[in-house]
Every structure is written in structure tokens, then in C-alpha cells.
Amino acid sequence: xxxxxxxxxxxxxxxxxxxxxxxxxxxxxxxxxxxxxxxxxxxxxxxxxxxxxxxxxxxxxxxxxxxxxxxxxxxxxxxxxxxxxxxxxxxxxxxxxxxxxxxxxxxxxxxxxxx
Amino acid sequence: xxxxxxxxxxxxxxxxxxxxxxxxxxxxxxxxxxxxxxxxxxxxxxxxxxxxxxxxxxxxxxxxxxxxxxxxxxxxxxxxxxxxxxxxxxxxxxxxxxxxxxxxxxxxxx
Lengths: 115, 110
What we know:
The structure holds 2 protein chains of 2 kinds.
Chain A: E1 5-7, E2 10-13, E3 19-24, E4 31-37, E5 44-50, E6 53-57, E7 65-68, E8 75-79, E9 88-95, E10 105-106, E11 110-114
Chain B: E1 9-13, E2 18-23, E3 31-38, E4 45-50, E5 55-56, E6 61-64, E7 70-75, E8 84-92, E9 104-109
Parallel strand pairs in B: 1-9
Antiparallel strand pairs in B: 2-7, 3-4, 3-8, 5-6, 6-7, 8-9
């Protein structure tokens, strides 16, 4: 396993279209996270899963955004009716849920451009 | 979430040590101090983390103040490949998310 992978790496879409991104975490990691990053800013938390359960969602995750992790392995993030303000890098990360605090491993991200 | 404060930018000369400061005056007893860095066009990369004691790994050292209200990431010999944005993050022992600030942009001069 070479790490967290994300597909596609780049997505250009027109305003109003729906887009879906996929994240494949490190295989033994039971936690999976989604973040969004705009230019010059640090990543902003969107949501995270432990196994199949979505444990926390940010208020940034409007009703146009939905994330799933149906079998506790890969995850998808869908954005419906995209807006220009959705243009950003979408980052996925995974980790173990260890006592204490474990490191998160990030993927390379999917860069979304909404025209 | 407890907040961290970092300088916006720092410069270093190649092969010299770099000390990156972070203030976290509202840290709670169960918060771990994590450092990540992000190279251009890449996702963040874990550097080091600690709770109370100083920590060393192959990438860096983490010095934690006795009152835990500040910490310093130490790169012992900066290389050009260390040029990145460095984020100091507090994560609760049972935390899911990480709350990133805007980090410190480190420039390494040859």
C-alpha cells in the first residue's frame, strides 16, 4: 500500500453540475477525513468517518455536499449544483483510531475548478 | 477548538538550524501538539507530535514548554526541500478532525 489515493486529481466543471470525488485510504486505517483548502489558507475540516459511521460534519458542509463510506473502506464526496465558491483543493486523509492521538496521512488532493 | 498562533513567514539559510514557534495558550490537558508541513502542490505531511515531553524523530525535534502554552519545531539542518508551509495543530486525545491555521511559510535560502 503506497498511501492515500484520490481520484480524479483535477476536475473542471461548469456551475450547476454535480461532481463526485473518490478517496482510497490506507487499508488498515479505520478513520477517514475530508478537508477543503483554498489558495493561501490552511485546510478546513469538512467531515470524518470511523469505519462506516460519519461521526462529525462541519457547518461548512452544506446540504449540497454529501459524503459516504459505505463499506468502511473507500469514501466518496459529492457536491451537487456546484458554485464558483466550491473551487478548491479537496483533501482526504486517513488514520488509525489509537488511544492518544495518531497521525493523519493525507492524499494528494483533488483540485476542483468551477467555471 | 483550541487555537494556535504562528508567524506568517520565516527565512533560513541552508544547512542552518530552524526554530519554528507556536503559541497555544488555551491548550487543554488532553490536547496533543501536532506539526504537519505542506510542500507546494501536495497534501500535508505529518512531521511530529507530542503531549508533554520533548520529542525527536528522523525529521525534526519538538520542544514543548513546561506550561505547554507554547512549542517549537526544530529542524536541525534546513535543506532546500524543507521549504514548505508548517502547521502547528492541537488535537484532543480522542479527536477526529485537525483544525489548521494558516501556518508558517518557511523559505530556505541556498
